[in-house]
């Protein structure tokens, strides 16, 4: 028995020595290479998060600035009438009731569409198309006539079409192809804001 215990003691000492050696191992020392390697990824992740937050703030500010600089659509109130005359011309009258501080027609485009029992069509009118012409109130009481794109809409301005050429431009076809009781749709788009500021559907009347 004593021989067995005597042979066991050296083994215990060896285990204790090995255990103490592991506690003193450089792996557990402060500032050891392995600890520095473990800290470095954490710092890297924190830096990446900081950069991401900064970039997100910059992008958000840029997008916000773009949205603020986008033009706000003006307010436009019109009274529109359309009728076919005895000469088969389509007369269109758009009287401006309110246009805020003024809306330059160079910033507008007019979209028309029409549909009858037998036919349909439409067109887009942009500045430079001459029509609809504008009848502008003047100080001397005599209205001035301007081409579309050259005048500004104010309360009291009247846009009108009363020629065959004007009908062709405005509706995209000869007035002969548009019958009485045809459904007309007129939309006005404010180009800088891409907003539709006026839309009306009406039935072509007869004033013959």
From TrEMBL:
Pfam families: Pilin_N (PF07790)
NCBIfam families the UniProt entry points to: arch_flag_Nterm
Domain of life: Archaea
Native source organism of the sequence: Methanospirillum stamsii
InterPro entries attached to this UniProt entry: Flagellin/pilin_N_arc (IPR013373), Pilin_N_archaeal (IPR012859)
Residue stretches spanning the membrane: 42-63
Record's keyword terms, sorted: Membrane, Transmembrane, Transmembrane helix
Keyword Transport: no
Domain Archaeal Type IV pilin N-terminal stretches: 37-114
Name of the protein this chain belongs to: Archaeal Type IV pilin N-terminal domain-containing protein
């Amino acid at each position: 028995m004593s021989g067995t215990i005597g042979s066991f003691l050296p083994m215990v000492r060896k285990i204790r020595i090995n255990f103490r050696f592991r506690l003193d191992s450089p792996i557990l020392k402060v500032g050891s290479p392995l600890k520095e390697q473990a800290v470095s990824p954490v710092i890297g992740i924190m830096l990446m998060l900081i950069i991401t937050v900064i970039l997100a703030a910059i992008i958000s500010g840029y997008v916000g600035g773009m949205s603020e600089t986008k033009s706000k659509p003006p307010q436009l109130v019109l009274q529109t009438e359309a009728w076919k005359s005895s000469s088969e011309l389509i007369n269109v009258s758009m009287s401006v009731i309110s246009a805020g501080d003024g809306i330059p027609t160079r910033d507008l485009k007019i979209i028309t569409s029409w549909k009858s029992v037998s036919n349909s069509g439409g067109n887009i009118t942009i500045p430079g198309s001459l029509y609809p012409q504008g009848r502008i109130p003047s100080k001397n009481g005599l209205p001035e006539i301007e081409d579309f794109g050259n005048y500004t809409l104010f309360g009291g301005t009247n846009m009108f079409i009363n020629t065959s050429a004007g009908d062709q431009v405005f509706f995209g076809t000869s007035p002969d192809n548009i019958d009485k009781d045809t459904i007309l749709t007129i939309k006005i788009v404010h180009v800088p804001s891409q907003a539709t500021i006026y839309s009306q559907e009406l039935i072509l009347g007869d004033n013959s």
